[in-house]
Amino acid sequence: MLENSAEEPLPVRVISEAIGDYLSKLGPVWIEGELSEVTVRPGAQMVFMRLRDTSADMSLSIMCHKSVLEAVNPLPANARVVMYSKVSWYAKSGSLSMNVKEIRQVGVGELLARLELLKNQLASEGLFAADRKKGLPFLPTAVGLICGRNSDAEKDVVENAKRRWPSVRFEIREVAVQGAAAVTEVSAALAELDAHPDVDVIIITRGGGSFEDLLPFSDETLIRLAAQAQTPIVSAIGHEKDAPLLDLVADWRASTPTDAGKRVVPDIVEELTKIRNLQDRSLRYLKNLLLNESNSIVQLMSRPILKDPYSMLSSRAEIVAAHKSRSLRAMEGELALGSEDLDSLKAQLRTLSPQSTLDRGYAVVLTQKGEIVRKAAALKPGDHISIKVAEGVVAATTDAALPAAPQE
After folding, report:
1. Choosing a second label site near 11 at 20 to 30 A (CA), which of 63, 83, 283, 285?
2. Rounded to whole angstroms, how far apart are CA atoms 31 and 299?
């Protein structure tokens, strides 16, 4: 560590040389990125350029000998390359760059293999599962649109959507849709629209392009961000044959930007036609219902009971009167039989009563205590007795008790 203080500060050259010494200890590395801003000065032997990260807004200053670049020329614009380089520190100006010794273009075959591995990984995590996909709203309050700046894709989406539903409202975010800045700008726009309270569906679109041009829409960072979005996403990248990974994670995949514009809003002509058809069906149903009910009322009114409602009362009155007459006759018969039975019982009762016995000339002898005398031996001469006859009572005194006559 360099010794220094406020009283004894270090000169700029010492700090710059110390940084150079430290960085010189770092060994060479392989770096992958997107090549841009290639500057070749006439007569110069060194070429200066920038290497951008494909998923973040970061870049490094690159320099190499002209022969290193010529070994891989011609390179397409925004080519994805791998560089073998070492950190170079220019102490005089305090600038850092990467001194490149070898450049290799990343081939389509290698990129396809990487995408296939990434696709399988994301699929195993369930990011492409059908049960995760959200349904599109019938009529969104606002449609979020992420597209290139002044692009044909934007016009296709907006024009087709407004043709179907003229009052549709868009929240448009124009971003870079290819190159090193595409992933960063598309991701930022997606996060912003996903948080927008009025946006009910988000379209991410761009026109056709080469395989390399569409690579940002297969970036893992963007795919995971789309999978976490709460708002339904429609992917409309390139044409039918193009298949970026965004198509797999999106809630709906549109074959073209035109198709996306048609998917997010209903057709006002079709909806009005449906409404008219429903109105006609409802009116026909109501008319048929009223007609059926009217016919039912006519049929009911034609029935005898409704023509003369009192006929039911009259017939029922006759039945009630007949039942009443039968009930009275039955009750009179029962009463007559009961009266006869009562007379018979009264006659039997009179026959069996003590008074009837007395009326036939019999008498009841009572002791002075009022007890009935059943045996002559129970009396002694001189006992006072009472003799009850049919009419009245006779007082007497016993003279003698005679024995009972033998029964034959």
Report:
1. 63
2. 94
**Residue 38: CATH number of its domain:** 2.40.50.140
Same domain, 116 and 215: yes
Return the pLDDT at 44: 83
Query: 36 with 150, same domain?
Result: no
- Cβ proximity of 31 and 98 under 8 Å: yes
Exposure class string for 14-30: b at 16+ Cβ within 10 A, else e: eebeeebeeeeeeeeee
Distances (CA, A) of 389 to 353, 355, 358: 14, 9, 6
Distance, in Å, from the CA atom of 95 to the CA atom of 97, rounded to the nearest integer, reads 7
Burial class (CB in 10 A: 0-12, 13-18, 19+), 106: middle
Task: Give the predicted TM-score (pTM) of the model.
Answer: 0.59
Q: How many domains does the chain have?
A: 4
- Write the pLDDT tens digit of every residue in 42-60: 888 888 888 888 777 788 8
If one counts every other C-beta atom within 10 angstroms of the C-beta of residue 68, the result is: 19
Spell out the alpha helix ranges (H) of 353-396: 354-359
Half-sphere exposure at residue 121, Cβ-oriented, CA atoms within 13 angstroms: 11
pLDDT in tens, 193-243: 999 999 999 999 998 777 777 888 988 899 999 999 999 999 998 776 768
In whole angstroms, give the CA distance from residue 131 to residue 115.
23
